[in-house]
């Protein structure tokens, strides 16, 4: 295993940012680390990179414990922090030289031109970092994280705030890197994870809610559909629909109800009949296939929301 | 450690910081030594460099916190501290690298004053009628004093992510440790009881003692303790980031 997380917990005052989190990542795997904002993704990643100390539990990166040998962990990790902090007043090459000298890389110049080539920074390599566009900053952030050829890459929201073209470039870069490295990357965009990852770990409120291969998660949604119904009346009691055969779950959202059911049964007729029988007026009803986003929403909605 | 050191030095001299620091120091010291008639050596009738050694701590009081204020406050506010602390570097390496870089910059400002020494030496009558021993002692004291101010300023910089706060706090702490104890010792309550002891806590006492040209190990030890205490404080604060 290249990354093992065991009962990792981080407490800030009375609040638990990460609560007893455990998962493993195999070598060469691309793991999508998902969760809504504030779920504890960044905190977990900071603990993996030994920036913050866990309150309880531990994590191992390439068999080095984050508590006992942080320097060895940092040597084997490439980390791209959220918001990608860079020294704006430095030149691109100067910055890469600085990073290379921290890692005590032997053939600095050779490695730097290799990395510039790999991340597509060529055109911008003689600029001051402060003048780079967001996409190139992100490339430089990736470049500094892989310069020492680490076994494990930890990327915290590497695609946030990029435009569509930059997004695609960065994604393909990550995909390429994932061919030889273990990659953990966080995101709150489900499609992105679907496109890139072998496996997803979803957390919510600091706890693990799903840890599955991406295709298994895909199968889970394949057989289900969602019917959205909006009633004219307020205070509709969802219990009255419980008797309808085939409805697995009812949830309330944006003033409407979402009925999820298996694909074979069309529940729309029954919903209509039940509504009429209870004197309710349907003003809108449509049927959608469930997608990854829905699964993500279902798994991560907070308890008081249901 | 060397990577952080050279990055800091590089930043000083690729931006205006380094040049501003050196020229402001030399211009202000030069004005006091050669131009302003109240303090000018030319009007003083004695070949000494006392002006330099009495004014320099005052200039450093503002200049050194201005150099050190960015050390950690800037890294924290920009988030680059997370970059440094997730690289295979120990706290000690990061802090020592920054400390030596700041100290070297201050030393670069001090070194050209050797020309002043040469000028005063030549102006003496007869030539060379100058207490070289006292001047060497004073230089040693001034280097140790500036290293102490650098350590104090860096400590102040770890306490905040706002550079202005770091500067004001650093300047205050430097002032407090340099002068305040001299004046506290003069308060009537302490006379003939604790006054000497209180004076000895301050940097000023040890600096003056070295200015006499006497390299007392107790003074040197004092300066090293001040530097150690504040750098240790810096390491402690940085290690305890949440």
- Helix % of chain A is 25-40%
Rg for CA atoms of chain B: 19 Å
What's the number of helices of chain B? 12
Gross geometry of chain B: globular
The H/E string of chain B reads: HHHHHHHHHHHH
Class by alpha and beta content of chain A: alpha/beta
Descriptors:
heterodimer, A: 306 residues, alpha/beta, Rossmann fold, 2 domains, 4-stranded antiparallel β-sheet, B: mainly alpha
Q: Can you walk me through this structure?
A:
The complex is a heterodimer of chains A (306) and B (242). With 306 residues, chain A is α/β, with parallel strands linked by helices. Chain A has 10 helices and 14 strands. Chain A has helices at residues 41-48, 70-76, 92-102, 108-119, 134-146, 164-177, 190-196, 214-222, 268-277, 292-300; strands spanning 3-12, 15-25, 30-34, 56-61, 64-65, 77-80, 152-156, 182-187, 199-204, 207-213, 224-231, 247-253, 256-262, 282-289. Chain B has 242 residues and is mainly α. Chain B has one domain (2-239). Chain B is built from 12 helices and no strands. Chain B has helices spanning 2-14, 17-35, 50-68, 70-78, 80-84, 91-110, 114-123, 132-158, 163-185, 195-201, 203-211, 217-239. In chain B, helix 2 (17-35) packs antiparallel against helix 3 (50-68). Chain B is globular, with a radius of gyration of 19 Å. The interface between A and B is medium-sized, with 27 and 23 residues.
């Amino acid at each position: 295993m290249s990354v093992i997380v065991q009962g990792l917990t981080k407490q800030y005052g009375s609040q638990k940012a990460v609560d007893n989190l455990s998962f493993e990542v195999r070598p060469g795997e691309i793991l999508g680390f998902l969760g809504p904002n504030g779920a504890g993704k960044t905190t977990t990643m900071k603990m993996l990179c030994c920036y913050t100390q866990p309150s309880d539990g531990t994590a191992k990166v390439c068999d080095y414990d984050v508590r006992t040998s942080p320097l060895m962990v940092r040597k084997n990790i490439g980390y791209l922090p959220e918001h990608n902090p860079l020294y704006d007043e430095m030149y691109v090459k100067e910055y890469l030289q600085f990073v290379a000298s921290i890692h005590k890389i032997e053939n600095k110049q050779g490695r730097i031109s290799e990395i510039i080539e790999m991340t597509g920074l060529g055109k911008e390599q003689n600029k001051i970092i402060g003048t780079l566009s967001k996409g190139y900053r992100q490339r430089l952030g990736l470049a500094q994280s892989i310069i020492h050829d680490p076994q494990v890459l930890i990327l915290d929201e590497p695609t946030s705030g990029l435009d569509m073209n930059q997004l695609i470039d960065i994604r393909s870069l990550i995909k390429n890197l994932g061919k030889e490295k273990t990659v953990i990357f966080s995101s709150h965009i489900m499609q992105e994870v679907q496109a890139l990852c072998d496996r997803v770990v979803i957390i919510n409120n600091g706890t693990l809610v799903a840890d599955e291969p991406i295709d298994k998660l895909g199968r889970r949604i394949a057989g289900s559909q969602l019917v959205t119904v909006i009633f004219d009346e307020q205070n509709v009691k969802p219990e009255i629909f419980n008797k309808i055969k085939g409805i697995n779950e009812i949830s309330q959202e944006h003033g409407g109800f979402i009925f999820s059911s298996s694909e074979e049964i069309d529940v729309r007729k029954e919903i209509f009949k039940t509504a009429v029988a209870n004197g309710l007026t349907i003003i809108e009803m449509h049927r959608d296939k469930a997608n990854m986003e829905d699964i993500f929403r279902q798994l991560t909605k907070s308890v008081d929301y249901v | 450690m060397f990577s952080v050191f050279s990055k800091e030095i590089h930043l000083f001299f690729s931006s205006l910081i380094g040049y501003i620091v050196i020229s402001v120091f030399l211009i202000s010291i030069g004005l006091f030594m050669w131009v302003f008639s109240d303090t000018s050596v030319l009007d003083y009738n004695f070949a000494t460099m006392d002006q330099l050694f009495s004014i320099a701590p005052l200039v450093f009081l503002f200049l050194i916190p201005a150099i050190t204020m960015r050390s950690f406050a800037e890294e924290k506010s920009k988030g680059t501290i997370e970059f440094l602390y997730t690289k295979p570097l120990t706290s000690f390496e990061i802090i020592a690298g920054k400390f030596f870089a700041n100290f070297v910059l201050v030393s670069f400002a001090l070194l050209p004053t050797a020309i002043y020494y040469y000028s005063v030496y030549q102006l003496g009558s007869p030539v060379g009628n100058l207490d070289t021993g006292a001047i060497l002692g004073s230089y040693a004291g001034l280097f140790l004093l500036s290293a102490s101010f650098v350590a104090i300023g860096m400590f102040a910089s770890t306490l905040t992510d706002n550079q202005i706060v770091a500067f004001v706090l650093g300047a205050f702490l430097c002032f407090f440790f340099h002068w305040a104890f001299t004046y506290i010792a003069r308060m009537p309550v302490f006379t003939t009881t604790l006054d000497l002891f209180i004076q000895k806590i301050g940097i000023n006492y040890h600096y003056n003692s070295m200015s006499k040209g006497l390299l007392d190990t107790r003074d040197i030890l004092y300066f090293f303790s001040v530097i150690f205490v504040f750098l240790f404080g810096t390491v402690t604060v940085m290690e305890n980031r949440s």
